[in-house]
Design goal:
The structure is a homodimer of 339-residue chains. Chain A has 339 residues and is mainly α. Chain A is built from 17 helices and no strands. In chain A, helix 4 runs antiparallel to helix 17. In chain A, 52% of the residues are buried.
């Protein structure tokens, strides 16, 4: 694939924003959004209502954008990536809807959005609907390889979610176990979203695998930073609430590191707040303070940098160019939003 | 397809049991069960535990048996129907798991089985896992036509479930609206399960459609009778609890007919018990009494007979034989269990 790269382009420093990616994918993403809106329709009005709550609301659409950008990186010229990017977004949205379903025990604490409005059951069913629609889109595309990649990823995502459930509230979860969870629940879809770009462009296996690795490592970065932000985000800037994971007793790398580095009194604090879920006013502030004392948040970001470096290097097999730069920027963006 | 039919076989009266179907499919179903047990495995132990709760427990396995019998009816000789029958059962089990998820409001009333033990969230996630596994099985089979049929059916099922949710507790639901719900939530999978038998046997479109129609009508029969049994079952004999639908305020044909045929005082009773869910001791007995007075249960079975007749006639395009007799028996079995 011959790409003309200006020296200026080649030498520009990495940007920690998505402006290049957004510009690169704007036209394609308009088509993807049209497809998303069309395919979430149903004569059963509650379905587009509830799905629209999440989908039309927007979000970054990062995953479908990765499919589009990966296809472009591979020199793909057709329109198949629109359908498949929509399928990726539907799988992601279905996961979000199901992730927000609350257990009986959770009802005592805060309710998740779609649930709070419509209840558990509609969220589950509309998630199923979107999941089925994702497969309809893939079937319409007609590639068994793509179907294989995304159905496997779907199974792995649910395995990761169940793993997370099983380790939930266990403060002594190892970093390795946590990594397994986020590799499955988050990174598997990032990997698949990128890989299919190479598949439809009919590129050699090495490029497929490079994009898979890029996506997988990027997904880990994304989740690590997300978990750090839950204790450090500038709420106004990111529209993200601090303390959600803490309230739920979710075990993430920041809590794992703080626990491992803490003394007995601190470990008792983590057990009380995250395992027994006995939380008092001021506990979240104490948690953040302990994390800062032990460098748990900084080191979570440091770990993220490691996976970010691997993501960047995975792209080494591709020629320089606008598409590659844009994908590298995603890595930097994901890391930098952690500050 | 030339089939030798003994006169004896041709003239034997329809049997209202599944003995012929069970004998016909025994060997195939052993292979299907092995596949089901193998494919529900996961390194995440909670998944086979929870899935096994429903799957290993058995159940009739009616839907996969229909796939197997339909394939045999079409003279299919290979082994693809094993994988696809397992996929059908996984889709069904995923639906069951998600159907049992309770809304906040439901927590006050009885909890469904898998939920009661593990909670909502694991049931949702394991349902997702089985759904993804179903698609993996279909992808491994490799037929885009089969994938198309079953992904469409999956979307339709969820549409039906959402429709049911929307009409729930509305005693004035019309028979037509109710039929739409059960056509989607139940009959769509029966139709797809049968149709794919013809697809893999590479039979002409007319036979595919005949099996689709057979399955669809059989599915309606199945659901109608199920809804009648909820007010009339011999609990000891069927292992089915009477009154579950009533407790949940579910609107089914027996309640629709009783409401339409009732006077103002009776309608007030239905509104209080099913819409407002203010139920008192003796209310279930009163409901059953009103249904009996208005022939609501008998007429639900009568309606079932109508769809049963259509199911039987749909098989008219196929030659007589053991397979066809077994499929006709299923219709009779489904109707007769209503008494």
């Amino acid at each position: 694939m011959a790409v003309v790269v200006s020296l200026e382009e080649r030498n520009r420093p990495a940007r920690a924003d998505l402006s290049d990616l957004l510009a690169l994918t704007a036209e394609d993403m308009a088509a993807v959004n049209t497809l998303i809106l069309a395919r979430m329709q149903s004569p059963v009005a509650l379905i587009p209502q509830l799905a629209g709550h999440l989908i039309a609301a927007g979000g970054k659409r990062l995953r479908p954008m990765l499919t589009v950008a990966s296809a472009r990186l591979c020199g793909y010229q057709g329109a198949r990536h629109h359908r498949l990017a929509a399928a990726v977004e539907f799988i992601h949205t279905a996961t979000l809807l199901h992730d927000d379903v609350v257990d009986e025990s959770d009802l005592r604490r805060g309710l998740a959005t779609a649930n709070a409005v419509w209840g558990n059951k509609p969220s589950v069913l509309v998630g199923d609907f979107l999941f089925a629609r994702a497969f309809e889109l893939m079937v319409a595309d007609g590639s068994l390889r793509v179907l294989d990649i995304l159905s496997r990823a779907s199974a792995v995502i649910t395995e990761g979610e169940v793993m997370q459930l099983v380790t939930a509230n266990d403060v002594a979860t190892s970093e390795g176990a946590y990594l397994e969870v986020i590799k499955s629940k988050t990174a598997a879809l990032f990997a698949a979203a990128c890989r299919i770009g190479a598949v439809i462009a009919d590129r050699p296996r090495a490029e497929e695998e490079a994009l898979d690795e890029y996506g997988r490592n990027l997904g880990i970065v994304y989740q690590l930073v997300d978990d750090a932000l839950d204790y450090s985000a500038d709420q106004a800037k990111l529209g993200k609430t601090v303390g959600d994971d803490f309230k739920e007793g979710k075990i993430t790398l920041p809590t794992i590191l703080a626990y491992l580095r803490g003394d007995e009194e601190e470990r008792a604090f983590w057990r009380r707040t995250l395992e027994e879920l006995h939380q008092e006013p001021g506990d979240l502030e104490r948690a953040i303070q302990l994390m800062r004392r032990h460098g748990a948040l900084e080191d979570t970001i440091l770990r993220a940098r490691h996976y970010g470096a691997m993501a960047r290097d995975a792209l080494g097999v591709f020629a320089e160019g606008r598409e590659k730069r844009a994908l590298v920027d995603v890595v930097d963006f994901c890391i930098e939003r952690g500050h």
